[in-house]
Write a structure and sequence with these properties.
Subcellular location: Cell inner membrane
Number of strands: 0
Number of domains: 1
Distance between the termini: 64 Å
Strand content: under 5%
Oligomer: single chain
Transmembrane segments: 12-37, 49-72, 84-110, 122-142, 162-188, 200-220, 252-273, 293-314, 320-340
Keywords: Cell inner membrane, Cell membrane, Membrane, Transmembrane, Transmembrane helix, Transport
Number of helices: 16
Structural class: mainly alpha
Largest sheet: none
InterPro entries: Sulf_transp_TsuA/YedE (IPR007272)
Radius of gyration: 19 Å
Membrane topology: Multi-pass membrane protein
């Protein structure tokens, strides 16, 4: 297979397969970041938030078990191998969360909705991809790198990698224990809403997709000749990479991120078609379109600044307990809460 399609093509195939699973999870399992936050804040229902917890815990357990078996080295991931900035995680997370509320979806959710025929989400995807690449390597890149420089870390930037030696436990075991605790708290914790079997299954499937990507790209990195990066899913810069490939494929290579983006759209299409939910939708309110474009710009800039979106930091980085993951995820939650409050009440902060 690798001889036929090449290592970049095989990496894209890995992204495509696991991306299809994530697309199905969005359409069939209703796995959604903003939906979980909105249900919690305004529906007094934490069912989807519990699903998110199961996904995080499952991804963590599976990834650290893979580490124990020698299938993946977390320090090969840039989440742990490069220094991180507290200010970038907070500022980027807040911007991403606020933009997510304005747009009505994160990048992953917008791809899933676009796969179901929502042309409004297609606009979000296009604008977010452009904003992400403008921040990553375009006119905004210089400002970003001067404010938040990243460099090779002298030690793994992970919670388990710090706790393990301190308490005398293997690093992989620390990660597994924390992951099991998160899963248990998500299932029986004292919050509103009860996770049903379907939610438990889909949360676990999402975690499996994240871990599968780590394992498969690690194997490709170790056995191939191209030294492709060890990565898992994120939906900010890869959207821009996908758009660039569509326009310049004759002079560009496939990658995991390109396959991942295509996979989510394909999986969402299959899921919406299976449920009879595929239908074309368009924006008929210029004010709504303006709000969504503004939100997409904020998400693109925020995700690159924070080195990951709600999926990239909230699941992929969290699966290896990167320092940046909980900080960014909390900042995204706060930003989304502020954005939702602004939309629903007209005020950013509570009035006295």
């Amino acid at each position: 297979m690798i001889a036929l399609i090449g290592e970049p093509g095989f990496a894209a195939l890995i992204g495509l397969i696991s991306g299809i699973v994530l697309g199905l999870a969005a359409r069939l399992g209703r796995f959604c970041t903003l939906g979980a936050i909105e249900d919690q804040l305004y529906g007094n229902d934490c069912t989807r938030l519990r699903m998110w917890g199961v996904a995080i815990g499952s991804a963590m357990v599976l990834s650290f078990v893979a580490m124990a078996l020698g299938l993946v080295d977390p320090t090969e991931s840039f989440y742990l191998s490069e220094t991180w900035s507290l200010a970038a995680a907070i500022l980027g997370g807040l911007a991403f969360g606020y933009g997510m509320a304005l747009a009505g979806n994160c990048g992953y959710g917008a791809l899933a909705r676009a796969g179901g025929g929502d042309l409004r989400s297609l606009v979000i995807v296009l604008v977010m991809g452009l904003a992400a690449y403008a921040t990553l390597s375009g006119p905004l890149a210089g400002l970003r790198t001067s404010l938040f420089p990243r460099m090779e870390a002298t030690a793994p930037q992970g919670i388990a990698h710090v706790l393990g030696p301190l308490i005398g436990m293997p690093i992989w075991l620390v990660g597994c224990v924390i992951g099991v605790v998160i899963i248990a708290a998500s299932i029986v914790g004292p919050v509103h809403g009860v996770i049903r079997l379907g939610g438990l299954i889909w949360g676990t499937i999402v975690g499996l997709a994240i871990a599968f990507a780590w394992i498969a790209t690690s194997w490709l990195n170790q056995t191939g000749f191209d030294e492709l990066p060890v990565v898992s899913h994120t939906f900010s810069a890869p959207i821009g990479e996908f758009l660039l490939y569509v326009m310049t494929s004759s002079g560009a290579h496939l990658s995991f991120g390109i396959g991942s983006v295509a996979g989510v759209v394909a999986g969402a299409f299959l899921g919406s078609f299976e449920r009879g939910q595929f239908r074309w939708e368009a924006c008929d309110d210029p004010r709504e379109l303006r709000r969504q474009i503004m939100g997409a710009v904020l998400m693109g800039w925020g995700a690159v600044t924070a080195s990951g979106c709600s999926i990239g930091q909230g699941l992929s980085a969290f699966s290896f307990l990167a320092f940046s993951a909980p900080v960014t995820l909390i900042a995204i939650w706060i930003g989304a809460a502020l954005g939702l409050r602004k939309l629903m009440t007209g005020y950013l902060l509570p009035t006295l």
